[in-house]
What we know:
213 residues; mainly beta; ten-stranded mixed β-sheet; globular
Amino acid sequence: xxxGLTTEAGGGDFTPIVKYDARxxxxxxxxxxxxxxxxxxxxxxxxxGFKAIFDMENIxxxxxxxxxxxxxxxxxxxxxxxxxxxxxxxxxxGFKILLKLGKDAGGDVRELxxxxxVVINALDSLHTAYEAQKAANPGKxxxxxxxGTKPVVSQGQGQxxxxxxxxxxxxxxxxxxxxxxxxxxxxxxxxxxxQAAxxxxxxAKALxxxxxx
Length: 213
């Protein structure tokens, strides 16, 4: 699968997020909480035992800009549609997907987005597995675990750097949760374009109980 990389404007309420730190190889839940000095942003690590129901039917791809001091900027379309125009030289190819965390990680609906190559590649591999297994699991969404990370070394300008690619694995399938509507409060996701038929693979074993969600 290749992510193939309606311009949308932020504002108002938004879906809370999870964030993957590619340099550290760690997953965080970003919480907004009312503190003594007003609203505060807290990062809660959820790397260990991370499981979530991923809304693979409604992935959005396109362009993203994450910069300090400003809200993220996106120009996205449903997976399978032509990419929109690149809004600026600073925007990079990226994606956005909704997921429902397992109870141990918070249990609510969150948004995961990134333009880091290692995260894009991880979601790309996950989508390939999803396409291979979805025919054997009609009407269901995959329960995905982060089972580890892989170091990826890149070279540039005489220096090397290491990022860590998350390893996402489908460990079970579940009915779509009622609160996972397929849309975020910032960017409604139109119905995805039809996907080409893929030969079904055996259904994943139910390694995760429904009580975890």
